[in-house]
Structures are given as structure tokens and as C-alpha cells.
Amino acid sequence: MVPTKAAQKLDFTVIVRPSPYICAEWEFGGLPSWLLKDVNIKLLLYYEPYLEKLGAYYNALLPKLKLFLLVFYEYVF
Description:
Layout: H1 3-9, H2 48-66
């Protein structure tokens, strides 16, 4: 069973933290270790090679998450 379907069946709300730096206590903060293959990499800064990989990550992930988005409030301006 797909995890999201299992959560729906159990009436669970799932919290997804889709940031590339999701867990400071994890090794390398949850970032993939293959980023270190680039000896010049500058993480969490404005560095084009890092931002390109970050963009590819979000472009692949966010359309999948959009299907399960649940909005609890509206912005009030």
C-alpha cells in the first residue's frame, strides 16, 4: 500500500518537510552525500551548481506533493 493511502485509511495527517536541509541532527543535515563530490560546492548559499540540483529536486518532488496538499488557513492581508 502506498504510504499516503495508508495514512488516509487511518485518517492520519502527514507532515512533509520537503527542504533540502530538513534535519540538523542527521548526518549532513539530511542533504545527499553525493553533493560533496563537487569539492567547490557551497551549500545553503547562492552557488549555481547547488541551486541547479536544488531546483531539480523541487521540480521532481513538488508536483507529487501537490496532490496531497491540505490548506488549513487563508492568508489575510
